[in-house]
MFS transporter
Amino acid sequence: MTESAPAERLFRGHSGRLLLVVSLGWFAIQTGRLVVSPLLPDIQNALRITSAEAGFALTAMWGLYALAQYPSGRLSDQLSRKTLLLTGLVAILVGFLALAAAPVYALFVLAAAAVGLGAGCYPVAARALVSDLFVEKRGRAFGLHSGAGDLGGVAAAGLATLVLAYATWRAAFLPIAAVLAVVVVTYALWSAESLTVARTDLAVAATARRILGDAQLRWLLLTYALYAFTWQSAAGFLPTYLRAKDFSPLVANAAFAVLFGVGTLVKPAAGTLSDRVPRDHLTPVTLALAALSLAGIVLAQTPIVAVAAVVAFAVGLMAYPPIMQAYLMDSFPDESAGGDLGAMRTVYLAIGATGPTFVGVVHTQASYDLAFACLVAALATGAVILVALARKQ
């Protein structure tokens, strides 16, 4: 069921090819989902919707993405990684084409939900495959794979700027669909696994007992939920927030690109560092830096200060996932690693998916400043919890 290579090669051989293709798929998926954020003001104008309605559409996409994590991880353990990866790729390809064609808000929400459901089938199986392929270089491999998603964020900002200059927001999803089609064909040819279809037991109760019965995993789950709440809120509304602060669209999109551009460098570096330094010592530092920097964004009055704060925010925010995911995969039993990671991702991403709706509602009732100040508090709380856990080790 699992695939392995004689040597752990990050850029060559069987392991390197599979890491490349699943990372390219993650790049395309993230580009497509994140391009919605810089396009959001134009989408709102075209569909005549409020910030709260826009936030609900993002929550639908992220929420279904979250709910699919556990079943997809469990099925990738019971069937094959290839089965879930190809299913997710094809489903999200259809979802992006539907987004490009959606003429009214109701259909836009349905298309966003389809994107979320398709995308939800992909990342746990992809990370489980990476974990299958790499042991000694697991942190570096997770960093490179995660960094591909952040490169997608950079591409999303550039794609949005280009599309809005020469076409409408709908055109942004077509090149992404083309890249996904290439990934489908390439991965199907390169993977030696079989496509497997069979009845399986999701074992929800056993998985819940295994994770929730461990006090440390419960606290780690809470910190990841606070992180995900902030991350999905920022990914959904950072460009809109900066434009609300009277910064130009160019500055807002540039800051959004910087957020992910920094991530492409920080995630591989953080993953490599976590192979050498205890991971529980690194994680609180990342969240503390992210909290302080996000406070700087809230207080920023000039574009230069805002962009500088975004850079520091990105360093802290983007360093967290590869470190924590490698730590979690080290902790899970091999035979249930995909399902256990999927279960945790379902919970923390489901909580995180409420973030865009929270920001949209708080803005509607009060201000973006108050909404983002609440995100600062969420990150600070996560950092304090992680410090307490590290002291117990």
